[in-house]
User: Fold this.
Amino acid sequence: MRQYSGFGSAEATNRRFRFLIKQGQTGLSVAFDLPTQLGYDSDSPRAEGEVGRVGVPISSVEDMRLLFQGIKLGMVSTSMTINATAAIMLAMYAAVGTSQGVPLSRLRGTTQNDILKEYIARNTYIFPPEQSLRLSVDIIEFCAKQMPMWHPISISGYHIRESGSSAVQELAYAFANAEEYVRACIKRGLEVDDFAPHLSFFFACHNDFLEEIAKFRAARRIWAHMMKEKFHSKNPESMKLRFHTQTSGETLTAQQPQNNIVRVAIQALGAVLGGTQSLHTNSLDEALSLPTEEAVKIALRTQQIIAFESGVTKAIDPLGGSFYVESLTNKIESEAKAEIHQVDKLGGAVKAIQSGYIQNQIRDSAFKRQMGIESRANKIVGVNVYVDPKPYHITLHKIAPAAVRRQISRTKAFKRKRHKTRLLRSLRKLQKALEDDINVMPLIISAVKSGGTTGEISDVIREEYGEFHPKTII
Assistant:
C-alpha cells in the first residue's frame, strides 16, 4: 500500500508522512514539484510561481533531510516520482540514509527514472533522449552493484495511459521503452540477469473493470516472453513482472467529486484482481486540487478494506479460467505485441519517439475518446449524463504562501553557508565524468554531500549535454 505525499514544503510533507505511518501505511511515495523535476532550485527565477505547487520542492540535501526528519530510512520503502533529475534525488536520499547510519545496501524503494515516457507523455525532460537514457542506465547499473534492495526504474505505462492511450497502447509503449532500457544496459556490459530482477513497472487502472484485469494478466505474459525469448534470460526472477498500479487520475471528475470514491474503489479492486503487488489509490478531490488529509484517509481506507475485508487476496488469479477474461487477455497480448513489433520496425523506442510515431498514435486515441465523451457515446456520470445543475462544493487543500517563502529563504541560506572550494571541486569532477562517459552516480553523490544543489548539478549536465527541444509533431 502506498499513498503519495508531496506538496508545499518539506515540512508539510514530513507531517503527511507521519500521518500516513500512524494510519497503517507500509510504504511512502513522494512526488516532487515542477522546478525540482526540471532541474531548477526553488530560488531560481524560472521556478517563480511553481514552488511546491504539484509536489515537494527539493533543492538541497538539507531539504531531503527535513523531508524525512524523524523517519528511519532503514525501516521504510520510499517511491520517488522523478525522472530527469532522478540521479540527483537518489543521491540526496542516499546521503541522508548514510548520515542516519543506513548503508546503501539496506535502502529500499524505487526511483521512477523512466525518462523515455517523458518525451511521450509528461514532457518533464531536460536533456536529449540519448543522453537522458545514459543517465537512466547509470542509475540501473549503480543500484545493481551498490543498492540491491532498490528498484532503480519504474517503467511507466501509467502516464502513457493518462495521456489518452488505449489499454493496448499502454502496454505496447511501456514494454517498447523497457526493451530500450534493457538493450542499453546490455550494451553497457551488464549481464541481463544481473539487473533485470531489479526492474519494475507502473501501470494505470481505468474503469473498464474486466479489460483492466485482462491487461495486467497480458502484461505478465508479454514481459516473461520478452525476457526469455528476446534477451535469453536464464533467471526466473528476471521474467517476473514486478508492478505498481495507481488508480486513474484522468478518469476523476471535478463534477460530483464524491463519485470518484466509487471510481477509485472499482479501479483498485481491478488492480488487485489483476495481480498488482503495490497500489496507490487516488483521492476524491484530485480533479480539483492536491488532496486534503480527509480525502487521503478515504483513499487509504479503500485499499485497507479491499485488503482485509473483501477476501479477494486469498487467490492469486481469481478470474483465471473465466472464458471472457481469458479471451480478452489473449486479445490484448496479441495486439500489444503487434504494436511492439511496429516500434521495433521503426528502430526501437527512441527512434519511434524522435519520429513522433508514438505521440501521434496516443494523440489519435485521445481524440477518439474525447469525441466519444462529447457525443455521449462514452457516458461519464455527472459529466454528460445525470448532471447536477448546481456545482458541488468541497473543502480543498491550499498551498500556504508562507511555506513557499520559507523554502526559497532556506535555499538561499543553504547556498551561503557552503564550502565553495569543495563544491567547485566536486562539480568539476562530475563534469569530467560526463565527458569521459563513466557512471556519474558516485560523483553526483559526492557533489550533493559537498553542497551541490539540484539546479547546480543539473546545470553541469546541461552544459555537457544541452537541452532537448522537440520538433513540432503534426
